[in-house]
Amino acid sequence: MASEREAPAPESLADLLGGWRSAVETAVPLVGFAAGWLAGGHSIPLGAGVAVLAGAAVAAWRITAGRRPLGTVFSLLLVCAGALVALRTGRAADFFGVRVFTNAVSVLAWAASILVRRPFLGLIVGTVLGQRTRWRRDPGLLRAYQRASWVWVGQYCIRLAVFIPLWWAGSVLWLTAAQTVLTWPLVAACLAVSWWVLRRALPPGHPGIRHPQSDSPADPRRRPAG
């Protein structure tokens, strides 16, 4: 029967977007850089080497586990870019500067996606669920994704408010701690709050994010009962 073939809906966005594993994997190269930098007597080459090796190990683990290759390659490229920038400038804190930049870009990109009615949260979740952009034809679900996406804009703003002063001061250890703490704990809070906002924003009787409804006369919600 069709009902038996349907997979149960996830309980939260964390299940859909990778959960704590993705956040922990992101923090591993950061900690590796700081550890190598300290062990080498503030050696940027050693810190960069450890970070790249740690990033490569995480990438290999992700691929072995069947994770999405595009996200894996992007994460490794960020680590390599940070290492190259730090080696180029001779300033250890610049290893983290790449992430400061990506968070600033994320603020602008997420806000713009909301304003043009293509919220990134909907694009990401829709892709994970195999819906492509069908959710955009559901006005209630589109509006819910827009509201929930503002939570992610706020997350990136919080990161920048913490990262920029530390990066400017060149505080490598504090940057490591801040970027680690503001990875999983902040992402977890963002996932929980955005999921709550998303569910609250859906109109009454909506079947949920797995079942986008078409805004047309054929919409089941518009049919009389019985």
UniProtKB/TrEMBL annotation:
Coiled-coil ranges (or none): none
Protein name: DUF3159 domain-containing protein
Transmembrane segments: 44-63, 70-87, 107-129, 150-169, 181-198
Positions of region (Disordered): 207-226
Source species taxonomy: Bacteria, Bacillati, Actinomycetota, Actinomycetes, Micromonosporales
Keyword entries, A-Z: Membrane, Transmembrane, Transmembrane helix
